[in-house]
Amino acid sequence: MNLIKADIANSRTALGIEFGSTRIKAVLIDSDHSPIASGSYEWENRLEEGIWTYSLDDIWQGLQISYQEMAVEVKEKYGVTLQKIGAIGFSAMMHGYMVFNKDGELLVPFRTWRNSITEQARKELTELFNYNIPQRWSIAHLYQAILNEEEHVVDVTFFTTLAGYIHWKLTGKKVLGIGDASGMFPIDVETKNYDTRMIQAFDDLIGEKNYPWKLEEILPQVMLAGDEAGQLSEEGAKLLDVSGNLQAGIPLCPPEGDAGTGMVATNSVAKRTGNVSAGTSVFAMIVLEKELKKVHPEIDLVTTPSGSLVGMVHANNCSSDINAWVKLFREFSEVLGCKVNIDKIFEILFSKALEGDRDCGGLLSYGYYSGENITGMREGRPLFVRSPESNFNLANFMRVHLFSALGALKIGIDILLTEENIQIDKILGHGGLFKTKGVGQKVMAAVMSAPVSVMETAGEGGAWGIALLASFMTNRQENESLEEYLDKKVFVTYTGVKVDADEKDVEGFEVFIKRYKQGLTIEQAAIDSLI
């Protein structure tokens, strides 16, 4: 307790705040990199006029409440009013579209990664660059707005992600960590900056529009892990801490995306390592040893926070449909007069899934709340279907929803493993799907055909990851790499629990994924028929 108090008093702490798709979380760590206080704010995106979005009011309210909860915990546990912090970092959902005019005004509502409205732009840019540009990437949103002849495009002076926006407002700096930047526009891993050939190709493509800007002028500056990316301004301190206790001048690390912080939080930034983040969406990140042999629309190429090339398989949908069914079961239990904690219901139902048939007994589901790029679905229609011969019981019902949550991911992973012959030494999992011990891991191991480990810190997730990046900035030794820092100073004492792939589970998932692919016509029919 005294050591933690001394860390707080002497600014040997680091604060990470991450904007996830359903929760904003603040985590304060001490000099040993251990979480000592946290706060959170639950939020949900909204579908407004066909666009998945969050309002600016929600963004700032969530930031302030999560920080306030953390600061209150510091006061209650350690008897200290938080005024100074050693370093701060912000991270958020990657991609999406936030554009501002010369007065700093948001020109159109924030368009999140979840939107599947940029198919024409995706296709044309992928062909132009000979580089996969997914629909959710920021440059695809910008080009689609140009193709749509949206009036606001002419007034754009700054173009960034959610993390970049928060950082800008708190420091005045228009910068972005390279990992987050790699989801806006392709990165040249040799120069650790935007690919200049592709920037020129884009400017040439839209040249006849005669916009008063060039792409490089409106993109945020790229920064690497370990760089100082500005300091908390007086205005920023008041925005973050409405109590007025927090002092300005605190250094900030480059803002990062949730993919990068997931890699840091699982110590998966070295080559031949990977991690899987499974929550509202699911994505697998494999740090590559070399470029891929060909362009795959199912595989994003992004980077670690230090600029190493990463193959990313991203599925828009994962746990949303599972959450909806669990809420239904809770409602049923309440009708019976049984009030059961929602976490307990998750634990019971997830554990039940392990009793199911290896291939889910012939059941099939698609948890598509939104469109799914990997399978070519423009919209979402959550769907459950079975035949009269299916083995329909609770165990198989829960098992098929866990399998389906990873179905689109499996399609992309198979491309990396079989077509590209990517070698993976270890996979680490984090996110809500892994909360029930052993269950999510066992299913994920079947998907990856490889052992999957979950660390004790997995529940802290990306907020802890960005706090580690903030700590790395202030505590790194000269020429010390992020990989070395994590290996030797952070993860020495953190242990993980490993679950090996069960051969019968792997075989069962292969049977299921064949059914999943064959049934995609059913999902498409639901999209076409249900408005």
TrEMBL record:
Belongs to the FGGY kinase family. InterPro entries: ATPase_NBD, FGGY_C, FGGY_Carb_Kinase, FGGY_N. It holds the Pfam family FGGY_C. Residues 14-240 form the Carbohydrate kinase FGGY N-terminal domain. Residues 275-472 form the Carbohydrate kinase FGGY C-terminal domain. The keyword Kinase applies. The keyword Kinase applies. This is FGGY-family carbohydrate kinase. Keywords: Kinase, Transferase. One of its GO terms (molecular function) is kinase activity.
